[in-house]
Amino acid sequence: MGKTYESIDGRLRKFIESQPVFFTATAPLADDGHVNLSPKGRSGTLAIIDELTLAYLDFGGSTAETIAHLRENGRITLMWCAFDGPPTVVRVHGRGEPVFRDDPRFAELITHFPADADGSALRAIVLVHATRVSDSCGFAVPLMDFREDRSLHADFFDRKTDEEFAVYCEGKPYVPVSVDGLPALPLPLPPRP
After folding, report:
1. What predicted TM-score, i.e. pTM, was given to this entire model?
2. Peptide bond preceding 86: is omega within 30 degrees of 0, i.e. cis?
3. In 3-state terms, what secondary structure has residue 24?
4. Cα angle for residues 10, 40, 26 (degrees, 5° grid)
5. Which band of pLDDT confidence, cut at 50, 70 and 90, is reported for residue 2?
């Protein structure tokens, strides 16, 4: 039986921080817009700032749908599933915003992450203010073993300078705008602080 919680308490925090992957879901306001669901991984790239605030590092890739949706309406859900241990699913519904590299809050927020997590291709920090925290059974979630983080993303972008990464972002059609035409990552990409 699922429960809702006032905050991300010690037990929920421990569960969230022990999961190697989580998922983010966002959507535009338009009825015919594309819902976006993204897996997130890479150790050390999620931080619980306080009992109702989380943040995660947003790295470059082929699109910027989450950023576009957050800029338009701020709605976001984060979800963690237990792929080992007791069957549990935790969801944090909330309001999110991208904090870009030229935002004065960026320098303080980045201190919540391990220095080695702040890798190449960092576009923004997604800040999430929880409005609903819940868990439910994960009886249908399969048992799987975690082996290790994939290094392909970091390896690829570590070969690029920050200037080359900015050019990469400008060359992707769904980075400055979403697949639905919403403003996404502001370009030109500001330099890293």
Report:
1. 0.96
2. no
3. strand
4. 95
5. confident
